[in-house]
Amino acid sequence: MKINPKMRHQDLAQHVNEQLEFIPVEDVRSSVIVMILVIYDVPLLMGLLSIFELEYLWIVSPFILILHLWGTRLLIKNPYSTQFEMVLFMGIWGSFGAISLFVMVQGMSYYTLHITSVFYYIVINLTSILLTYIFVKYQIDKYSGDPTKEKKRGNKSKYMGALAIAPAIGYMLGQSVQETIVLKFVIALIVIYFFAIFLVYAAAKFLHRYFFMKANMDYVNYHPYSNKKKEKLIKQGVEIK
């Protein structure tokens, strides 16, 4: 993870430079709103309303509270002062979001769709663990080795085996619910599961980015203040160094 300090910044490969970049400061507030209110809250609310069991709300309530309070802090704070924090937030948002939605998937499967097949739960959980492993390994492999060498596009066929499990899960889901459950709940479950997988990918990507940047501070460039922002701060009496 540590880049040789003798390496020149301009010699780094494009994908390495991208992993050393912050989120554009002008996009921070809008990104936080979309991440929390749309990508996290909407599928979570779908799951909670489908299950309608108070215990599941208690299980995910710590994640809800932490993410909403942290997101509010990022909305209030100066985005130039929270550049590292934003990267960490995106990693934690992915982790907590994935856990929350995986809990919803389990609850919907049992309480809403009345699936009692042990085999179904084994397959869906093993698939989730396998996909998590693939995403984490992909991030580690992508930034290991020579940081000056451009990476070739990976052979995605080796991941097709994991993706091929999706139809099998769909088939088992269909066989398990048969005609006893309204189709909209099946669709909702599938949507929530794919949101959960997306959040796993986000967690792997941005947690790796955070620690990768921390390990290579000499190659990290903070976003500078724009001229318009500088003028505004100067008028407010803030000294720009």
Automatic annotation (TrEMBL):
Keyword Transmembrane annotated: yes
Transmembrane segments: 32-52, 58-76, 88-112, 118-136, 157-175, 181-204
Keywords tagged on the record: Membrane, Transmembrane, Transmembrane helix
Entry protein name: Uncharacterized protein
Source organism of the structure: Lentibacillus populi
